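Note to self: keep these together.
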Amino acid sequence: MTEQRQQHNEITSCEGCGVKLQTEKPELPGYIPAQTLDREPVICQRCFRIKNYNDAASVTLEQDDFLRLLSQVGASKNESLVIHIVDLFDFDGSLISSLQRFVGNNPVLLVVNKIDLLPKVTNWNRLTNWVQKRAKEHGIKVIDVVLVSAKKNQGFEMLLDKVGQYRRHGQDIYVVGATNVGKSTLINRLIRDYSDIERELTTSRFPGTTLDLVKIPLDDGNFIIDTPGIVYPSRLTELVSRKDLGAIMPDRPLKPMVFQLNEGQTLFFGAMARFDFVQGPRQSFTCFVSNGLNIHRTKLDRADELYAEHRGEMLAPPNREQIEDLPVWTKHQIRIPKGSKSDLFISGLGWIKVNSDEGALVTIHAPKGVKVLARDSMI
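Structure:
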């Protein structure tokens, strides 16, 4: 073994961001292919992609560790601009409700991604007001809301304008968000517009020194600070297999499905979740879920039997083997008061809009731990 190889084998941390190196799990911080340990500098795959491709690939972190990192923002004496990016399709599941407690008085710019999933006739001003109201109800004070589509490259010029408007000289930019919300795309766009990153990153180490923050230098001497994607087990997308993830996460505009239901009828969303219309006058419900997810209607009094006999087959995804990997279902009984316009939200799966204001009693069945709630209608 050469002296150079011996020296590299003694390196246990990324020379770019300081993360502890590991060769087993590509999705976790610090991953480096074993065959690249002899290269110089010894940097994790994430730093390699930033340096060579301007690609700030996302990594994930458990909730407690993420919040510990986030507390550094509020504890810092220097004010920073916090950009919180959320997934419109999974808004209440991807919003970091405890954000304000950890970032203190630092201004928060809320960026809502995946607006391309909604109908083109959507009233965007009304949607912005809805987002502001929901954020406030979650205890987050936002200085502004920007609607974007990373996939369609929509709204980014507005975002850059807002960053320029709210970021004071000398401020760092923290970017925070849950997994699968489009954070990497946002980071990469900010890099292109605010940093001469190729010159900076090919001549020196990355400035980040903590376990899982990457500090990307800006032209003015400050930094874009990329935080790991936070993992929320309350999102169905964190529980399903990668194969089934494609079935429940929409990648094209939603085609809402309207069902006229009598009380005592049930809708199955594959074998992922179930909606029971328990009581109320005949009315319509609109389902905003992935177009690839099969919705099956049946009578409530035979729903249990149908599920037992056909889950994983007629009721799929997931298939029968993968169903055993999901937590058992939990019932959530929700009463929709008269005169209200409500959505029934299942984190990671979508939502069901209650179209009538006549009131209803419904039950949602979803894997244990998945967030289920009633909220004011988004659309």
